[in-house]
Amino acid sequence: MSLITDICGMHILLIGATAREIQPAADHMLSHAGRRTGPEISVLVTGVGLVPTTVALMQQLFVHRPDMVIQAGIAGSFRDKMLGEVVVVKEDALSDVGVFEEGVFRSVFDLGLAAENVFPYCNGYLVNPYSRLLSLPALKQVRGVSVHTITTDPGIIRRYRQTEGAVVESMEGAALHYVCLVEKIPFLQFRAISNRVGERDKSKWDIQAATLGLNQTLITFFNQLTVNHANRDWI
Description:
By secondary structure, this protein is α/β, with parallel strands linked by helices. The protein has a single domain, classed as Nucleoside phosphorylase domain (Rossmann fold, 3-Layer(aba) Sandwich). It has helices spanning about 20-30, 50-65, 130-135, 155-165, 175-185, 205-225, and strands spanning about 10-15, 40-45, 70-75, 85-90, 100, 105, 125, 140-145, 170, 185-195. The protein has a 5-stranded mixed β-barrel with strand order 3-9-8-4-10.
């Protein structure tokens, strides 16, 4: 893949579904933007969901094409004991696009409406190919699923967790992966775990801790990029 050669003069676009998920990190990054050793920063609140994210991101790319896109937000996890943990999503999928027939879900690949190994797909997933960039935050790299409706059905949860091996669920991640793969823009998706998928008792959620951890991670990552701007072989 192409290299980002120098953070000086580099343009980073930070996006989130809602302002509250990324506001502290956005404020920090914007306050340091434009300095001699720092990148240019833009912040975009896309709205919740795959379609709003796709439209907002594409509109932004037409106005000012960035060198890197960072998406950040909270997410549910299919695993126990991850509450508050921050991860990066290596591969994501449009996991609820298809049809249920006789109680069995059939994807667009199963239906022959798309090919699971034709770009931008790889085995049916939208895989981030920028391995060196993925490794920079030194976080667990996981598989995600993106959905139009938050998952609560136990059978669907089992399918995502056991059959697809998903770790996190969001409503925007696959849109980032799809757009950036097609546009050939390096990208990262950060997710902080606020709840277990299927848990509807909000007293067992911890959005505050997830948001705090997410923003601390984003600020640390941004500072890491700025300090190590002389490293020319990131991606």
